[in-house]
User: Which sequence fits this backbone?
């Protein structure tokens, strides 16, 4: 998604600097060329070696780095090269210096020398954030075109429950991608796409349930990618720990029955339906209204089949392009081909069960004509775009 983009990540001396390592890692996984600039205070919290290892580039700590001698006037060259400068965390001190036009270190000098997009993720004590000087400086940066994300409320390093926490890395990445999304093709403009995600939960009693290891990451990545490419996306999600992608209509469900009802309600007039959810095959025949007490040495649980949502959709697609997913432990392609034929799918994506909960995986995309497209290990957002590319290529042909 960020292939060909250069991102400068400025890290200042807030305790949230450890989260910047995850940001750099995620940006690299999205294909960006990442350069890290650390202030002197940040280096005391996270070693430059950490960022060098994650980014694959030298870390800039001052304006006279010998390692950057190949770049004429390094801060100017990098400022001109960067598509976006992100400062995360951004302390009150750094906000004040930038707002005041001070350029007394590598980071503030680079910011001053760049006319490209800039984004800050403030992080500080709650009282510091509310200080009128900080608020005025943030307002000023906003007027100058800086994108400001956060801070959020929660437990701070000082122990207070207050506003001041840096926004979470996934939120920062999502906002950053949206700022650079002008180059994303709008080839799904006018299309309606229904996507399911996550693993359903089938209740045994008020506190126990049957479920699986699905994290929902693939479905959420598909929803994000489709929305970025202009589609009107409805995401029906079983319980996950993920935040809803921007611009996506999310419908939350819990059980296979609830997911079935939601899918049936929204399936009409969809151009594409993508079923990534790991829907339970079985549910307890009887759900107890009270918590089951631990009394006997053994316990038998009667199970009955749930409704096969994918099969039901395959019986009456009403013009929708139907995509299924298959997570297998053996005979991957054979099992996927059988599932495709049995459930009348237009496309199926197959991967190993190791893809559950992972941020990346290998995958194979199979069409009705039998052709198979094998994908190497990629981030799930990259796989999502590859799947969408294939769907667009097949619409109206399969």
Assistant:
């Amino acid at each position: 998604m960020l292939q060909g983009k250069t991102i400068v990540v400025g890290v200042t001396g807030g305790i949230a600097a450890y989260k910047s390592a995850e940001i750099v890692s995620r940006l690299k996984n999205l294909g960006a060329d990442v350069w890290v600039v650390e202030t002197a205070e940040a280096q005391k919290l996270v070693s430059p070696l950490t960022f060098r290892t994650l980014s694959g580039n030298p870390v800039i700590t001052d304006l006279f780095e010998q390692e950057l001698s190949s770049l004429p006037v390094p801060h100017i060259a990098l400022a001109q090269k960067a598509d976006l400068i992100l400062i995360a965390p951004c302390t009150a001190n750094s906000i004040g210096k930038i707002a005041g036009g001070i350029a007394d270190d590598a980071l503030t000098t680079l910011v001053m020398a760049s006319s490209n997009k800039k984004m800050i993720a403030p992080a500080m004590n709650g009282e510091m954030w509310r200080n009128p000087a900080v608020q005025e400086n943030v307002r000023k940066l906003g007027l100058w075109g800086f994108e400001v994300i956060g801070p959020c409320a929660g437990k701070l390093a000082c122990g207070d429950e207050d506003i001041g926490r840096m926004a979470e890395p996934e939120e920062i990445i999502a906002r950053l991608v949206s700022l650079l999304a002008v180059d994303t093709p709008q080839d799904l403009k006018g299309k309606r796409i229904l996507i399911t995600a996550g693993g359903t939960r089938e209740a045994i009693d008020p506190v126990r349930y049957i479920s699986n290891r699905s994290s929902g990451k693939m479905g959420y990545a598909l929803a994000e990618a489709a929305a970025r490419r202009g589609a009107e996306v409805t995401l029906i999600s079983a319980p996950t720990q993920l935040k809803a992608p921007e611009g996506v209509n999310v419908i939350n469900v819990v059980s296979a029955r609830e997911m079935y009802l939601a899918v049936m309600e929204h399936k009409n007039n969809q151009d594409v339906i993508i079923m990534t959810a790991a829907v339970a095959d079985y549910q307890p025949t009887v759900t107890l209204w009270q918590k089951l007490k631990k009394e006997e040495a053994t316990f038998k649980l009667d199970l009955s089949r749930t409704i096969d949502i994918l099969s039901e959709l395959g019986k009456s697609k009403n013009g929708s392009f139907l995509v299924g997913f298959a997570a297998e432990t053996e005979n991957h392609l054979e099992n996927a081909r059988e599932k495709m034929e049995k459930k009348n799918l237009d496309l199926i994506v197959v991967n190993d069960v190791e893809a559950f909960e992972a941020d990346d995986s290998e995958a194979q995309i199979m069409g009705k004509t039998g052709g198979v497209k094998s994908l190497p290990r990629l981030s799930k957002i990259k796989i999502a775009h590859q799947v969408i590319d294939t769907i667009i290529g097949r619409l109206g042909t399969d």
Summary: The domain at 6-181 is CATH 3.40.50.1950 (Rossmann fold). The chain has a mean pLDDT of 89. The chain has two domains: 6-181, 185-394. The CA atoms of residues 160 and 384 lie 40 Å apart.
